[in-house]
Design a protein that fits this description.
The chain has 6 helices and 7 strands. The protein is α/β, with parallel strands linked by helices. The chain has one domain: Rossmann fold (3-Layer(aba) Sandwich). Strand 4, helix 5 and strand 5 form a beta-alpha-beta unit.
Length: 183
C-alpha cells in the first residue's frame, strides 16, 4: 500500500466520493478491474459499501480475497462476464485502457445493464497519446482511449445520463472522467 493510500487519499478519491455521495450505506458497488482491492475497493468497504470486484488476473483476485474477505471477488473478463445481480454503482478506474476501442465502447452498455434504476457509473480514461492505434496489443507503447465524444455517445446510447465530465482532470493525472446515472 502506498503512503498516500495509508493516509486515506488516492488519485481520484474526490470522484469516488462524488460517485457514492447519494448512496446509502450497504449499497452494492461493482468494481471493474479491481486489481488487488487497493485502494478503491478497500476505501468503499471501509465506508460500509458492499463491494464486488472483478479482474481478469487470478493472482490479484486471490490477493484481494485474502486481504479483504468481506468483499466479493470474481476472476473474469469484464467484456464477457455474466453477473446475475444488479448494483447501485459501477466503477471502472484505470481499467478500460487495456481494452480495444470496440470493447471499451461496449462496457458502458454492460455497466448500464448491471445498474439499478438511478444507479451511477464512474470511469476514467488517460489521455489518448496515439489515437491511430486500435489496440494496445499491436505493439504500441502508448495507452489509448476513445475520444471523449465517443465515450459520451456510448453513455447516452446505453440509457445513461451524463452527470459530470472533465476532459482532462489535473488532479487525476489529466485523465478524462465520466460520471453517469441510469435513467
Amino acid at each position: 500500500m502506498t503512503d498516500r493510500a495509508r493516509a486515506g487519499g488516492f488519485i481520484g478519491k474526490a470522484w469516488v466520493d462524488r460517485l457514492v455521495a447519494p448512496l446509502a450505506a450497504g449499497s452494492a458497488i461493482l468494481d471493474l478491474g479491481c486489481g488487488d482491492g487497493e485502494p478503491i475497493a478497500r476505501y468503499l468497504m471501509d465506508r460500509g459499501f458492499d463491494v464486488t470486484g472483478v479482474d481478469s488476473a487470478g493472482s490479484v483476485v486471490s490477493l484481494a480475497m485474502t486481504r479483504f474477505p468481506r468483499g466479493h471477488w470474481i476472476k473474469g473478463d469484464m467484456r464477457v462476464l455474466q453477473i446475475d445481480r444488479t448494483f447501485d454503482a459501477v466503477i471502472a478506474w484505470n481499467s478500460l485502457t487495456w481494452l480495444s476501442h470496440d470493447d471499451r465502447a461496449r462496457i458502458a452498455k454492460r455497466a448500464a445493464a448491471w445498474l439499478n434504476p438511478e444507479g451511477r457509473m464512474l470511469f476514467n480514461a488517460p489521455a489518448d497519446l496515439d489515437p491511430s492505434r486500435k489496440d494496445y496489443r499491436d505493439g504500441s507503447p502508448y495507452r489509448f482511449d476513445l475520444e471523449a465524444t465517443n465515450y459520451s455517445g456510448a453513455i447516452a446510447d446505453s440509457g445513461l445520463r451524463l452527470v459530470a465530465h472533465v476532459l482532462a482532470d489535473p488532479s487525476c493525472e489529466d485523465a478524462g472522467i465520466w460520471l453517469a446515472e441510469k435513467l
